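Worked example

This section walks through a single chain of length 366. The input is the sequence exactly as stored; nothing has been trimmed or padded.
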Amino acid sequence: MSSPTHHSSPERLRRGDSHGSVGSALNRVPEDEEPSVHADWELEEELLLEEQGFYQGSYNRLVALYTLAPVTAVVTFVLLAALPNIAFKSEKPHVPTYPYPAILPFPLLEILASIALFSLAHLLRNPIYALSAALLPFPLPATLLSTTVHTLLSTAARLFTLSILLVQRYALHPHATWKDPAFRRVWWAALGWAAAEAVVSVHQGYMGLALYREVLVPIPSSSSTAASPRSETERTPLLPQHQPAADLDTEVEQDLEQLIALKAREELEDVFGLPLVYIPAFIPCLQRFNSLLLSVGLFLLLSASQIGANLRWSLIGIATATHLVLAILHAPIVLPRIGVHGAAYVGSVVSLGAFFAGLGVWDGVS
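Given that input, the structure is written out below as tokens.
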């Protein structure tokens, strides 16, 4: 008697029948291999573009995402500006004893003074680096020297801001306390410094993104990637074409502009360690948040050293060392080695520590 015939059901074919190879053939349908093939092809396309000096992405989308950074700065500034009136509201508020002029009421004078001193310190950054590079021919020592000198200059500028505002002279208490009107004056001076720093940083970010306007290639749509990989000639991206120059001088000028932009992009990538368009939008937002907290913390520490005689030089040393550590982490030679992400996360921890330390010396966390 012949053995019964095996009938293969669709379910058995999907699981793979041990009596035949039909199931194994169905398990290896071409559709299962398409995602990996397309992923490899997209990676190859991206590497090919980078070799040619181009990047995938949309300039308008990058600008829109980077706009989250100034929005974060504004929101953080507003929250910090409202914090003294919410968390440090005294039952018997003191009238500010400083003789404010009619045209510069509180806190306009504190904001303008800190902005002016920050601008001076910022303008001296490049001359300090040029002088350091002239004294030390090696990049790393020159960078560390210029970073240290600029940090000391910034600390001196903050102390000078507090001095010209006469914070110590018009303080009502012999020691630093949040119940003193000087606390709010120092707070607004710190916010003014942080606001100026945020404006400069955001402007530099937009200028950096503008350098990539002409080298961004639109990302292929899903419908185009669903097709089979194209040949080498078909993978040439459609780059933005410039209008033909009317004369030779105009064409040479356009070429020079492209070379200048290329040089600026290379210098920017040397600073960050990667192309600016590859930095996630969350990182600039975190940096703006850290900058505001750090500014308030440093000003509170330095002002407490002026009002109270105890631990004066210790507080100045702590504020200077904190600022110096973060400045070295963001130095052009050090930042690529630790990464933009790592520097931002370390900056968050240090900035929060400086912020609460400043509140602590003013009895704001007791």
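What to look for: The first helix runs from residue 10 to 15.
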